[in-house]
Amino acid sequence: MRKYLLVGRTGVGKSSFINSVFGEYIAETAKYEACTRVIEHYAYNSPWGDVCLIDTPGLAEDDLECDNKYLGLIQQKVNLKQTFATFYISRLDDTRFRPDEKRTLSRLTEHLGSQIWSRTILILTFAASVPFHRRDEATKQRYEDIRNYLRQITYNQSYNFHDYWLIDNMIEDWADSALPISTIFKL
Length: 187
Ligand SMILES: Nc1nc2c(ncn2[C@@H]2O[C@H](COP(=O)(O)OP(=O)(O)O)[C@@H](O)[C@H]2O)c(=O)[nH]1
Ligand SMILES: [Mg+2]
What we know:
6 strands, globular
């Protein structure tokens, strides 16, 4: 079974992404405060075989102590050597590359090791909140911001995301060409 580690700062739609994949509400989501405080494994039977999605608490929610606690939980509960790929989740509608996103990237790298980025799929949520004519540019910008930042904090190791996906967890049919979400596992 292929295991995918979901990471990203709080509120970007990690748990909602799991619900989109399953087509039902199984991972708790929250509008105003973070609600994923534990590591949860969700097994899913995709058209490309069984996969397991590992939901994690979002970082940069509170203080560093809170981040440390969450990172410790990931280290304790997830066998990183067994994960097939990392889904890094970011909001496409953020208008800039935010300091708390940078902090999330550096804390993840520092605690889990840069190997978590060796096979990463970038998932950009809230895609429907960005007007159609700005989506390509916003995607390119975020992709490069994250990649350049990772390069900077890992002494120039080079990261090319394996793939990137634009999704919207709330609005179905947000794009004419939207593929079924399970296609994401066709890696
Ligand atoms: N419009 C829109 N809202 C979303 C999307 N993904 C998540 N949300 C909302 O954003 C909030 C936080 O989502 P959640 O999945 O709990 O984020 P997490 O902290 O990363 O697990 C919830 O109110 C979701 O309904 C999306 O793609 N589009
Ligand atoms: Mg969550």
